[in-house]
Amino acid sequence: MGLVRTTGSTMRISFHARLAGLCLFSCLFTPVSGSAQTASPPPPPPVSVAKPVVRDVVDNDEFIGRFEPVDQVSVRSRVGGYLQEVHFKDGAVVKQGDLLFVIDQRPYITALNEAKATLEVANSSQTYAEAQFNRAQALSSNGSQSVSTLDDRRREWISAQANVRGAQASADRAELDLDYTTITAPLSGRIDRHLISVGNLIQADQSILTTIVSLDPIDFYFDVDERRLLNFAETARASGKALQEGGNGTEVIVKIGDSGQSSFKGRLNFAENRIDNESGTIRVRARFPNPDLILQPGLFGRIQVEASNTYKAVLIPDEAIGSSQNERVVFVVGPDGTVSAKAVRPGPRIYGYRVIRQGLDGSETIIVNGLMRARPGMKVTPQMTELPQSRTDAPPESAAAESAK
């Protein structure tokens, strides 16, 4: 009986263990509640949208050129001698008439004194010859003097007058040479360093003492190729203006350094009279006021020249333009929030925006921020914004964008 009880107890324990295992298995594989199975999909992503800017614009062509002085001069001496004084600081800004150099004046002072003495002798001889002629003329009138003697006195007097004029010319020349020993600035501008030191011998009309370049105003030279030159001519004809006199005073803008530098305004005032046979370009000049002397000769710059007449253009930010294989696209949002892609042809950059040549008419609603969250065919939550007529905070144009343009 004891053995039977033991066996029954063991069987009851085994049954309860299997029942607990079945309960645990059923708990592990219990299906998820109905609320979790019916979870709603996420809402459409929010994006910023806006209408393109439509305004009157004028296309610009950009050229690279270099600033050159309006006037420049190599300062030379008109007389020879030893350099005695230098009266300027290297690199200073000088005004026309400022004293620059002094050549040893003692030889020229001596020459002037000698010329003046010769002039006095000539004047004395002229006075004597004139008196002799007057006396001979008086005697000849009453027959006391022969006519031949009168002619000799007239010849001597005329010769004395010529000697006076020659002596006066020599004195003037000596005085002029003395004036040339003081060399002044022939124009206002920035002066270079002195190229000859005090004590050196200067050769007349040969030795370059220094150079001066004018700074205000300053010229900017650049080359225009044949294609764009013809475009300028066509634009001028369309506007009823003749393409002459170097652009007829057309206003231009030049920038120096990086794009963060301020721009300078000037006007076209000259163009060469023919196209260069080798390069196929024509050289054009613009003149800029430079009161602050910021622009320097030899400085490179990028000049913008009007390349069209005024027309209505569609403008959008560069950030709103995407790429699809080998074309540029803009994401347009429909009334129901559906995104579609439209191929566009970008143009130049004006007022901080990109001109769209083809693909948009200005009535579309485009994505301007959140482009990475949108795909053609999907729905988005548009958040309307308004683009200003011009942007001053536009990011600088990248090298890739410049190359693509």
From TrEMBL:
One of its GO terms (molecular function) is transmembrane transporter activity. Keywords: Signal. Residues 248-307 form the Multidrug resistance protein MdtA-like beta-barrel domain. Residues 383-405 are annotated as: Disordered. It holds the Pfam family Beta-barrel_RND. PANTHER family: ACRA/E-RELATED COMPONENT OF DRUG EFFLUX TRANSPORTER, CATION EFFLUX PUMP. Belongs to the membrane fusion protein (MFP) (TC 8.A.1) family. This is RND family efflux transporter MFP subunit.
